[in-house]
């Protein structure tokens, strides 16, 4: 791999990753973007071997980000390197990412991840899968509890509700009428067979690993 793009708004993170990459291979060319617009432009007009992605540069980390990027460059390898504490490893890996690593990882773990991608084309952190297996054994997740039955707009309303926004706030955020937002909320409750906001939040906390934004897991 000779050309790598880092998408992250934290300067220190970018410098640290670049330093590790140069230690692995001094000839690696590293570029950097800090927002979604710059990222999409770079991916559209340039070829990269690897994208190291902080998903928080997107306004909605639950959106089908990987699918969008893969659509622009199907051969692009993507390593999610994030500070987000959402349980998104399965949706992102199933969506096409080759690696998923939290920023709490040590320098050695990051180096191991990068070397694994360079040599094998992927990296799966053992600790994350250990946690996943324990959650599955505890009955906290089931693939059929995804949000696939909701429309794209309903999923947006869903997440804003979970974040604690009221109907007026959601209407303003989505630039729709408050009555329209209320209709979306009603449809969400009906489709998920829940009766209250408390149940909605419980649904999110229990099944969020399998939430998706399309016909496939992201």
From TrEMBL:
<dbReference type="GO" id="GO:0006355">
    <property type="term" value="P:regulation of DNA-templated transcription"/>
</dbReference>
<dbReference type="Pfam" id="PF00072">
    <property type="entry name" value="Response_reg"/>
</dbReference>
<dbReference type="InterPro" id="IPR016032">
    <property type="entry name" value="Sig_transdc_resp-reg_C-effctor"/>
</dbReference>
<dbReference type="InterPro" id="IPR000792">
    <property type="entry name" value="Tscrpt_reg_LuxR_C"/>
</dbReference>
<feature type="domain" description="Response regulatory">
    <location>
        <begin position="3"/>
        <end position="118"/>
    </location>
</feature>
<dbReference type="GO" id="GO:0000160">
    <property type="term" value="P:phosphorelay signal transduction system"/>
</dbReference>
<keyword id="KW-0238">DNA-binding</keyword>
<dbReference type="InterPro" id="IPR051015">
    <property type="entry name" value="EvgA-like"/>
</dbReference>
<dbReference type="Pfam" id="PF00196">
    <property type="entry name" value="GerE"/>
</dbReference>
<protein>
    <submittedName>
        <fullName>Oxygen regulatory protein NreC</fullName>
    </submittedName>
</protein>
<dbReference type="InterPro" id="IPR001789">
    <property type="entry name" value="Sig_transdc_resp-reg_receiver"/>
</dbReference>
<dbReference type="GO" id="GO:0003677">
    <property type="term" value="F:DNA binding"/>
</dbReference>
<dbReference type="InterPro" id="IPR011006">
    <property type="entry name" value="CheY-like_superfamily"/>
</dbReference>
<feature type="domain" description="HTH luxR-type">
    <location>
        <begin position="143"/>
        <end position="208"/>
    </location>
</feature>
């Amino acid at each position: 791999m000779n050309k790598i793009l880092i998408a992250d708004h934290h300067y220190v993170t970018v410098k640290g990753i670049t330093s590790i990459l140069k230690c692995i291979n001094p000839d690696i060319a590293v570029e950097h973007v800090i927002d979604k617009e710059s990222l999409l432009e770079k991916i559209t007009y340039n070829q990269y071997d690897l994208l190291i992605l902080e998903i928080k540069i997107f306004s909605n980390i639950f959106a089908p980000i990987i699918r969008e990027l893969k659509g622009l460059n199907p051969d692009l390898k993507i390593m999610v390197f994030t500070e987000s504490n959402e349980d998104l490893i399965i949706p992102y890996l199933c969506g096409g990412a080759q690696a998923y690593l939290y920023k709490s990882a040590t320098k050695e773990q990051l180096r191991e991840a990068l070397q694994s991608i360079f040599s094998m084309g992927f990296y799966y952190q053992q600790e994350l899968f250990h946690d996943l297996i324990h959650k599955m054994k505890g009955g906290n997740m089931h693939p059929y509890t995804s949000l696939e039955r909701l429309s794209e707009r309903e999923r947006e309303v869903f997440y804003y509700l979970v974040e604690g926004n009221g109907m007026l706030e959601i209407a303003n955020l989505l630039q729709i009428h408050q009555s329209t937002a209320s209709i979306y909320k009603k449809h969400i409750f009906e489709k998920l067979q829940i009766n209250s906001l408390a149940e909605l939040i419980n649904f999110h906390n229990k099944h969020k690993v399998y939430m998706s934004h399309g016909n496939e897991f992201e």
